[in-house]
Write a structure and sequence with these properties.
Blueprint: H1 13-23, H2 28-37, H3 42-45, H4 50-55, H5 61-87
Helix pairs in contact: 1-2
Protein name: SAM domain-containing protein
Domain SAM: 11-70
InterPro entries: SAM, SAM/pointed_sf, SAM_domain-containing_protein
């Protein structure tokens, strides 16, 4: 099952969990708990910073940078694709 065809800023907590599972299967447990505990929706995901990831339990700086770089670019890329689909 894939994400609904809505912009990432509209993603529910469940859709964020699905996206994280696809992107980060090895860190899914840690991120899964944080997403649920802190009610992280797509809108929140787009705004996360490294210090916030640390507060969510992602202590390793390299991992923080990977999570910030890949999800944000991936989400923004998904958003661009979605916008093209909507405007067609």
């Amino acid at each position: 099952e894939h994400l609904q065809p809505v912009g990432p800023s509209s993603w529910s907590v469940e859709e964020v969990l699905e996206w994280i599972q696809e992107q980060y299967p090895t860190t899914m447990t840690l991120l899964h708990k944080a997403v649920i505990k802190h009610d992280i929706t797509g809108r929140v995901l787009l705004r996360l910073k490294d210090h916030q990831l640390k507060l969510l339990g992602v202590e390793d700086e390299k991992q923080q940078q990977e999570i910030l770089r890949k999800p944000i670019s991936g989400v923004k890329s998904d958003l661009c694709r979605w916008m093209r689909l909507v405007s067609v």
